[in-house]
């Protein structure tokens, strides 16, 4: 690790019952100033951080959502860049240095994301397009599977982008993101009304609206387990995130149209898929049918 990168970048990790992945996460960034924000873990996380990573700053806070935790970690650091890293993710090799160097070559980059890999080494498609009614329809009605490389049917996943070259993105999945302090100071912290999903989507939208860039850089790689803390139990929050993003940036009427669309799609999914997966879809469909979008977002 180059000492210049260490002086320029700090690491922020928010965790809630994410053992054993957290140890691997923190080991991968050992040597960088690191802030761990714990949201009430009961699995031994606090003890692990204190004994195995005493150099890390540990903040114990009430769980007010991922955005609130990230904001607390960012407020506790003062480096030029912050690497915001999921507790179930770890960097490979000199990925942090490569991200910092790439950001340095692109002075209008507010947010740089690496290539994400699953445990088995397969690609996680992190380059995404902002939610719209049509894009949500292509995703939740599986229309994208008809033509995964089509912008018309798969803009939500960047038309099957190969993730093998740098590119400018609308937004990047937030499992690992290098953010520039100057850009954060300009556009403000994450919106804490997003509890778990879409907070990075909103942040990227705001960065781009202010004239900053969101860049994907495959020269750095990070392994991401995915769902380690919530194990997929918060699918409803993912749906709520879509509604909140649309309500904030497209208006209440658009969020209400999205509610009706998503409810219909999840009723269909709930009828097609058996077991736990189908039950998850049916639960979200019932929630979407319980009130209008404006009430669901209160």
The named CATH superfamily of the largest domain: Spore Coat Polysaccharide Biosynthesis Protein SpsA, Chain A
Number of domains: 2
Number of helices: 13
Q: Please state the structural category.
A: alpha/beta
Rg for CA atoms:
19 Å
Provide mean pLDDT, rounded. 93
Which percent range fits the helix content? 40-55%
β-strand number? 12
Cα(first) to Cα(last) distance is: 46 Å
CATH-derived topology of the largest domain: Spore Coat Polysaccharide Biosynthesis Protein SpsA, Chain A
In short:
With 298 residues, the protein is α/β, with parallel strands linked by helices. The protein has two domains: 3-126 and 163-224, Spore Coat Polysaccharide Biosynthesis Protein SpsA, Chain A (Alpha-Beta Complex); 235-296. The chain has helices at residues 3-8, 21-28, 45-52, 66-75, 95-105, 133-140, 151-154, 181-187, 199-209, 235-250, 252-272, 275-288, 293-296, and strands at 9-15, 34-38, 57-60, 81-86, 89-91, 109-117, 123-124, 127-128, 167-168, 171-172, 176-180, 213-224.
Write up this protein:
The protein is α/β, with parallel strands linked by helices and 298 residues long. It has two domains: 3-126 and 163-224, Spore Coat Polysaccharide Biosynthesis Protein SpsA, Chain A; 235-296. It has 13 helices and twelve strands. It has helices at 3-8, 21-28, 45-52, 66-75, 95-105, 133-140, 151-154, 181-187, 199-209, 235-250, 252-272, 275-288, 293-296, and strands at residues 9-15, 34-38, 57-60, 81-86, 89-91, 109-117, 123-124, 127-128, 167-168, 171-172, 176-180, 213-224. The strands form two sheets. Strands 1, 2, 3, 4, 5, 6, 7, 9, 11 and 12 form a ten-stranded mixed sheet that branches. Strands 8-10 form a two-stranded antiparallel ribbon. Strand 2, helix 3 (45-52) and strand 3 form a beta-alpha-beta unit. Helix 10 (235-250) runs antiparallel to helix 11 (252-272). It starts with a helix and ends with a helix.
């Amino acid at each position: 690790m180059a000492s210049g990168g260490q002086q320029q970048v700090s690491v922020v990790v928010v965790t809630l019952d994410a053992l054993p992945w957290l140890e691997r996460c923190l080991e991968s960034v050992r040597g960088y100033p690191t802030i761990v924000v714990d949201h009430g873990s009961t699995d031994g996380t606090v003890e692990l951080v204190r004994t195995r990573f005493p150099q890390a700053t540990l903040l114990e806070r009430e769980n007010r959502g991922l955005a609130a935790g990230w904001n607390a970690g960012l407020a506790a650091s003062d480096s030029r860049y912050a690497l915001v890293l999921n507790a179930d993710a770890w960097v490979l090799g000199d990925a942090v240095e490569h991200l910092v160097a790439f950001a340095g070559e692109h002075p209008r980059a507010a947010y740089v994301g690496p290539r994400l890999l699953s445990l088995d080494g397969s690609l996680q498609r992190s380059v995404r397009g902002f939610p719209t009614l049509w894009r949500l329809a292509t995703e939740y009605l599986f229309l994208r599977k008809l033509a995964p490389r089509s912008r018309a049917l798969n803009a939500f996943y960047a038309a099957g982008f190969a993730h093998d070259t740098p590119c400018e993105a609308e937004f990047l999945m937030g499992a690992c993101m290098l953010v520039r302090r100057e850009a954060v100071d300009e556009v403000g912290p994450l919106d804490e009304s997003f509890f778990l999903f879409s907070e990075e989507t909103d942040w990227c939208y705001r960065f781009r609206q202010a004239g900053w860039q969101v860049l994907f850089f495959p020269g750095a790689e990070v392994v991401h387990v995915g769902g380690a803390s919530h194990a997929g139990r918060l699918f409803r929050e993912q749906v709520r995130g879509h509604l909140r993003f649309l309500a904030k940036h497209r208006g209440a009427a658009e969020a209400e149209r999205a509610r009706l669309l998503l409810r219909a799609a999840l009723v269909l999914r709930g009828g097609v898929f058996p077991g736990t997966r189908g039950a998850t879809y049916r639960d979200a469909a019932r929630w979407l049918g319980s009130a209008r979008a404006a009430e669901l977002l209160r």
